[in-house]
Amino acid sequence: MTTQTRVFSVDIVENVVIVTPNGDASGFRYQDIHTATNSLVDSIRRQKIARMVVDFGEVEVVGSIMISSIIKLARSIADQRGTAAFCNSSETMRDVISTMNLTKLWAHYDSRDEAVAAVCGLN
């Protein structure tokens, strides 16, 4: 099942929510990012989703506003005692999440399949 907002594409595969940013904050109004993020957090909590993968494959890099939204999403998974991971980052994006020490909280994988397997405990 795929849901599309202006800000994120959201797929559910094997009980894992996969969130793909559709661009950086500069391409959206702040209110759109805020609304999309809060809606997704509410959905995660309502459905008790405990696994998430953030797929950066559609963006070269995202800035602080989008990173803040992604952190909020990942924390909503952690609140449910779940697991989150990142995947498909460009070298620049990987540097950003590494510099922010986010990879100490949520692992990064080269592919979506690897990330899904990891959050499902299959590797």
Give an overview in words:
By secondary structure, the chain is an alpha/beta fold. The chain has a single domain (about 1-120), classed as Transcription Regulator spoIIAA (2-Layer Sandwich), CATH 3.30.750. The chain has 4 helices and 6 strands. It has helices at about 30-45, 65-80, 90-100, 110-120, and strands at about 1-5, 10-15, 15-20, 50-55, 85, 105-110. A 6-stranded mixed beta sheet has the order 1-2-3-4-5-6. Helix 3 links the parallel strand 5 and strand 6 (about 105-110). Helix 1 (about 30-45) runs parallel beside helix 2 (about 65-80). The longest helix has 17 residues, at about 30-45. The mean pLDDT is about 90.
Topology:
Layout (H helix, E strand, L loop, with lengths): L1 E3 L3 E6 L2 E6 L8 H17 L4 E5 L8 H16 L3 E5 L3 H9 L7 E3 L2 H8 L4
Parallel strand pairs: 3-4, 4-5, 5-6
Antiparallel strand pairs: 1-2, 2-3
Helix pairs in contact: 1-2
CATH fold-level label:
Transcription Regulator spoIIAA
Report the sheet-strand fraction.
15-25%
The largest sheet is: 6 strands, mixed
Per the principal axes of the C-alpha atoms, what is the gross shape?
globular
Helices and strands, in order, run as: EEEHEHEHEH
CATH homolog superfamily: STAS domain
The chain-level mean pLDDT equals 90
Cα separation of the termini: 24 Å
Helix content: 40-55%
Task: Please report the number of helical segments.
Answer: 4
Gyration radius over CA: 13 Å
